[in-house]
Specification:
mainly alpha, 15 helices, 5 strands
Length: 273
């Protein structure tokens, strides 16, 4: 046959695991491509595992690692979809057109449990940034998909959720102003924003005023930045790796892991496993 996975011939979609077959169905033209490739005799397509097949078919057909689920307003890697396990059929029902209150609740749970963001989620930070007075800052213009994801996570950060009232609003605006001044990318904006809030929380008694907080943050930044250079390196891969490769190369030994709050490399391929 012309298609194989881990050395096993794939003659039709039914030859794949249930999860891989369902995930491939979310790739527009994915099942059709597999049928065409399996029937052909001119070119062989050999994949080391099903996740590589999913990622390569998605990228080859559409030039993007993310599949679009238009009904759900969701862009997500088919490899990530496969990792949902028993929750994947819930998204399949909703994307297929089923609609009822129970299913909508289940979809919301699946998205939350697996940290998936819909288009509605991704545009929510714009209003928040406007309230903070930084929506028009140059560093926040032309944001890409991963930038918007980072902004959503910032908006939902426990550092913000733990505080409330006018003082919290004031601190958030101070943090946004500091982050705009120091950052050069939207994701750096998120880092500096959290940095300011964390430092303000630790030194609230010693620096009660906005000016003192800003000065303390600037001084801490000047002290810490030279110490971070050793944490900038991380594993490198070509294309989207399999989960096995990702686990092997982005385990606890990755020098950048602690900075990103997870046992993995901060590169894009780590975020969308």
């Amino acid at each position: 046959m012309s298609v194989s996975v881990a050395g096993r011939p794939v003659q039709q979609a039914a030859s794949l695991s249930d999860l891989a077959r369902l995930a491939l169905a979310f790739v527009d033209g994915g099942l059709e491509w597999l049928g065409w490739a399996a029937a052909g005799m001119g070119v062989r397509y050999d994949f080391p595992d099903e996740t590589t097949l999913l990622s390569q078919v998605q990228l080859g057909l559409h030039g993007s690692p993310l599949a679009l689920l238009p009904r759900l307003g969701l862009m997500v890697s088919p490899v990530k979809l496969m990792s949902l396990g028993g929750d994947l059929p819930v998204l399949a029902k909703a994307e297929g057109g089923d609609a009822n209150a129970l299913l909508n609740t289940q979809v919301r749970r699946v998205l939350d449990d697996h940290q998936l963001l819909s288009q509605a989620d991704l545009i929510a930070p714009q209003a928040w940034l406007t309230d903070l007075g930084v929506a028009r800052a140059p560093v926040l213009q032309g944001t890409e998909f991963h930038d918007r994801v980072a902004l959503v996570r910032l908006m939902r950060d426990p550092l913000l959720a733990a505080s409330a009232g006018s003082e919290a609003d004031t601190l958030a605006k101070e943090a946004a102003t500091f982050a705009v001044q120091q950052s050069r990318t939207p994701q750096e904006f998120c880092d500096y924003f959290r940095f300011y809030l964390a430092l303000a929380a630790r030194s609230a008694a010693a620096s009660p005023g906005p000016g003192q907080r800003a000065d303390a943050a600037a001084q801490a930044m000047r002290t810490l930045l030279p110490l971070f250079f050793g944490a900038l390196d991380c594993p490198q891969v070509t294309g989207l790796p399999s989960p096995t490769t990702s686990d092997a190369r982005s385990g606890p030994g990755c020098p950048a892991a602690s900075r990103w709050g997870s046992p993995g490399c901060p590169k894009d391929w780590c975020r969308w496993r």
